[in-house]
Amino acid sequence: MSACYASPLFAPLRCWLNQLPDRPDAAAVDALARRFPVRLDSGTEVRFVPPQADGLAYECRVWESGEVETRPDNWHDFFNALVWLSFPHTKRAVTAAHVAAMRPAGEARGSVRDALTHFDECGIVVLSRRPDLLDLLRAFEWKRLFVEHRDEVIAHMRFVVFGHATYEALLSPFRGLTAKAVLYDADDAWFALPEEAQLAAVDARLAADLASGLYVRPRDFQPLPLLGIPGVTPDSESPAYYDDAWQFRPGRRRSG
Question: How far apart are CA 48 and CA 58, in angstroms?
Fold first, then answer.
């Protein structure tokens, strides 16, 4: 496998990346999808097709025909396709919510679709069997979380990237790279599952929450500076790394 996938945050896609060329290959991804089909609620199989010029909205095309427009030799679309394979329930939920938010025809885009897009592009799920660690994350207590409680983070938290734009950015991670997080309490039973079963459980839970309308504004997600997660960059092994207030911002308290 290419060294560009070395980050531990690529773990949810690794089983697919191991079966593909070390470059974005839309045809190879579509062939993989034929071997491991993803179906919409209608039973239609998802296919990864070249961009079309008929003016049909992207999400509507997916929902009506299962066709996901995928540019050849394009990292962004390549990772989007792999997320469909890894998190099929959540991708279906995101697509359905987009289509529902477009009704009636001509409806303004609004905050619901903005929130869906934010998470679809840049989402991450953070799971912990230590609620106090999630509280530190919510409070933007980056140094307390990632330095003082580093061993606990490694032992009791997991970080599951969903957003395909985030995967693309992880090819060349940069200072300030931030994801939009959903935070979940997890139990020992989830931590004891094999990785494939862990991801399936996350997919089901996340899909149900998105379908329920739990996240309707971009600010409903928690900002998370990805380069602070232990193991993502060697720089984070130094406690002084977290003194960078531009990257590890204190955050604004918000109401409502």
Answer: 12
